Amino acid sequence: MSKKKISIKDIAKLTNTSITTVSFVLNGKGRISADIRKKILDVALENGYEPNRMAVGLRTGESKVIGLIVETISGPFFGTMAKVIEYEAEKAGYGVVYCSTDNNIQKGKNVIKMLSNQLVDGYIITPIKGLEKEIQKLISNEKPVVFIDSYFPDIDIPHVLVDNYNSVYQAIQFLADSGYKNIGFVTPDLDLVQLQERLKGYQAAIKANGLTEDPEMVFNLSYNSERTAAVEAVKEFLTRKTNMDAVFFSTNYLGIIGLQSINELKLNIPSDLGVMSFDDHELFELYPPGITSVKQPTYEIAKSAIDLLMSSLNDRSFDVSSIKLQIPAEIIKRGSTSDPN
């Protein structure tokens, strides 16, 4: 049987003091003698007293909790960032509530409403179109918000993410320098600014290198596709474009689907097809012959985002709305691409 949580009322009985006195001591208020203060704190510590965050929030206006709302907390990219954010938040005395939207607008609205009801102090959010009104309401209620991994171009909120455009531009430049002439591009059919910038980086690099600008070399895969259907769709794309000599996947989950498709087509990497993916993954290091990738600066993104949020929470007069950080990525070369000429 689990032990019942001790309350302020229980502590008052155990110390033969009033509920008001215990409340003052636990909240660092009032002029209480050192002996009584020590007695109350010792009993609270011995019995594992934990304050109700919501009750504290109602009384003080602060819950000491921040909300982290991302696409999916289970993925390696967001999972790694969550660890950094949690570590830095705990150092500052804050807890973190994690939530995923799965790029679903209604789920995102529900999550924001739920966290608002819990009096969360501030938010780090990966925004998706359709949540503008809810996020603007948070700002109107004077709740600090920092965007991570994406942003709304028309809303003045600080954001931190990888430099998507230039990172993909450099990746396609690397493929062109390696001798590839017909480079395919596979991306989800999501209306997200970071994916749009990756596509623009691809298109600009293709044009700058004098390569054929063929719209059919870009394949938009349905985000909601089941795994088997997604593999079949990528296989059909690869076999349809018979002149393709390299393919770039704009996310690592697409890169993994792509590897399964290539394997089922019995294509050899890199002699039949060069392969490169945005966002490195541990599988890319293990999968023979190793998959060349664009590695995001995960730690730097997460650390910058939590630092911005903490700056806002510590000093509400400090305006960080104009801070827009786009951090360069790194190309990790492995055996899936030929050596540059």
Outline type: elongated
Residue share in helices? 40-55%
Q: From the structure provided, what is the oligomeric state, counting identical versus distinct chains?
A: single chain
Architecture per CATH nomenclature, i.e. the level-2 architecture of the largest domain? 3-Layer(aba) Sandwich
* CA-based gyration radius: 25 Å
- Domain count, please report it: 3
CATH fold-type name of the largest domain: Rossmann fold
Poorly predicted runs of 5 or more residues: none
What's the helix count? 13
Give an account of the 3D structure:
By secondary structure, this protein is an alpha/beta fold. The chain has three domains: 8-50, no CATH class; 63-162 and 299-330, 3-Layer(aba) Sandwich (Rossmann fold), CATH 3.40.50; 164-296, Rossmann fold (3-Layer(aba) Sandwich). The protein is 45% helix and 16% strand. It contains 13 helices and twelve strands. It has helices spanning 8-15, 19-26, 34-46, 53-60, 76-91, 105-117, 132-140, 164-177, 193-208, 227-240, 252-264, 282-286, 298-314, and strands spanning 65-70, 95-100, 122-125, 145-148, 159-162, 183-188, 218-221, 246-249, 274-278, 292-295, 324-327, 330-332. Strands 2-1-3-4-5-11 form a six-stranded parallel β-sheet, sandwiched between helices. The radius of gyration is 25 Å and the shape is elongated. 36% of the residues are buried. The mean pLDDT is 90.
